[in-house]
């Protein structure tokens, strides 16, 4: 361990208006799992892009095994033994597994040999894969396997993993960790990017924490508490949502026997989904991405009409009503994708406010838009939800993810919904903004609204939900009170073992 | 009706389909790389006029074809620079390219109206050409007919079996992922656009040097648009592009013969029939089986962060 595998010295990278990395230095040893921790926008991705040759540093230098290392492009980094598993963007849905793997290699062998190698490596590391399946048909966990196997085939010395567990079930996370530990035992090093502190404490030998582009500290995570790590990441402490003790009221939203065909080739059908949601209650729906979350939201919001007699709002059948009619009746929703679904990117915040609040806030009258009222509404959202923006005339695209998320959630909350359905309310949002959004949802529930939160962040669901259910391949498990749920049982629910659960619960 | 000779009819299908086939196979490559170039019509007619002018002045149809390919490819590069480097809108720029091509060709072509160009000789394939019926239908054409079919086979093989083809498809499928893996998205697309331009130029030159063979303003008469439609309905697959082009060529020849033979069908319907039949058949083909546009088709690529 005298000479580190990779050492970074004074790496600096600036983009117009922002310094993404400022004088960052640390070492990664041989056979070490090194965590890179930080909030969104702390400069983690820019740093690894420099190591992987996608971005050239403005200043500073790197050394690999003591020799200067300045990859001009990813293929140079790959030749030097650096491989990277991306969080997203690096698989081709329409191509089969083998071709996807070949694209990430310098000199791929013939398809048949490659397919055999893929089978061998994937079995050796406990990540079974069929080389001829089309990637678009794979689950999130399987897609990640494709990326990992693609890296492993090149015998990397350093494997960079960007938020690998954000799309996995707890069981899949265990499999991944076992694979990573095996790699470590073979003397390979791993640079592990995450903001999940428990994982880092369980897996990593060393952790480097970035904040606003600067290195804050390098420490041993097993000897540092999660709270200390979190405070180093954020730089200050932030408010955790307050627990509350409201008793649920009458049933506001009832869904029964909801089945819908898949919307497209890569979508998920909904199969016999049913639940009840009461006033003052928060129901959390978890599950691995792509198991019907988006489809459930669009069935509830009215973007896709449901079969008659499946969705009841305050006892009224709204299954065949369009989104506007459902909004009039008090069923509001905020989809996951902020730009392009929840908000029109090139329109101003005022205009985006009009788009969903036109009728409930009486912004449109006799077919004409009352712009003064529209601006007032947008300003109210901005003020109440602390949206950091120059003003309501700013285009939605110009806002950071967290600020736009606060705006689109706030926009719905201020319309006083009877039932609010949100999908991934804090996805890609920094910790402080996430806490504010969760608190706003809880406050809304305390005022008597019924809230359905669809999320892949289990910690979030455990924190704010009264009851929890999981989506698996379009089926919804029975909802169970959050109090008393163990991680293991949640994993089983997410994995689709509903029947066992029911038998277990009633026994 | 007796005046239609079936052998001659079928033989002329190949000649009639070749311009569209050349343009369509080029556009297939362009679209597989994720670029939507609507300027095929403009590039074809530029190829037609440049090929004609060079062939008349040099007396060599071969030189005409080469000049046509080069001229259209250079023209297509202007589209490439605008859309790939300056990130202009692909649809608008493609339409602009068509307008530029039509205008430019009318200007260049004015002195050449009414002239006759040297044309390509029919290849003599020896005993093959002497075969009864088949010899007339398949083996008595000029070299460009066979080149265009060879080009389809080559494009198919490159896309399916080679690494270059895989990278091209990957860029068209998901340019962000391809960029993350270190492939030069813009450079690959510029090369595809250049190839597509050259093919469209060859197709245009085939019209003015072999099919017609003379220069009239606007002589492509929508062939570029048909090529674009064939690419889409053929689900971006080379062999289906061939089927589509031959189908269109076949119906075109048939309806011309029917008109000449004085068939008892309104001329308007006969003239429209190639378009209708092509669309109908290709819709039926693409309605079944897996088909899908390249994932990044027409989307601008920002190499940013």
UniProtKB/TrEMBL annotation, chain A:
GO molecular function: ATP binding; ATP hydrolysis activity
SUPFAM superfamilies named among the record's database cross-references: P-loop containing nucleoside triphosphate hydrolases
Ranges for domain ABC transporter: 6-237, 253-498
CDD domains: ABC_Carb_Monos_I, ABC_Carb_Monos_II
Gene3D superfamilies according to UniProt: P-loop containing nucleotide triphosphate hydrolases (3.40.50.300)
Compartments where located: Cell membrane
Spans traversing the lipid bilayer: none
Entries under InterPro entries matching the protein: AAA+_ATPase, ABC_carbohydrate_import_ATPase, ABC_transporter-like_ATP-bd, ABC_transporter-like_CS, P-loop_NTPase
Any GO CC annotation of this UniProt entry: plasma membrane
Membrane topology: Peripheral membrane protein
Stored Pfam families: ABC_tran
This protein's UniProt keywords: ATP-binding, Cell membrane, Membrane, Nucleotide-binding, Repeat, Sugar transport, Translocase, Transport
Main location: membrane
Protein name (Swiss-Prot/TrEMBL): Nucleoside ABC transporter ATP-binding protein
Automatic annotation (TrEMBL), chain B:
Keyword Cell membrane: yes
Keywords on record: Cell membrane, Membrane, Transmembrane, Transmembrane helix
Cellular localization per UniProt: Cell membrane
GO cellular component, one term: plasma membrane
Ranges that cross the membrane: 6-26, 38-56, 62-82, 94-113, 133-159, 190-209, 215-234, 241-261, 267-287
InterPro entries found in the cross-reference section: ABC_transp_permease
Membrane topology type: Multi-pass membrane protein
CDD domains registered for this protein in UniProt: TM_PBP1_transp_TpRbsC_like
Any Pfam family hit: BPD_transp_2
Molecular function per GO: transmembrane transporter activity
Top-level taxon of the source organism: Bacteria
Broad class of where this protein is predominantly found: membrane
Protein name as it appears in the record: Nucleoside ABC transporter membrane protein
Organism: Roseivivax sediminis
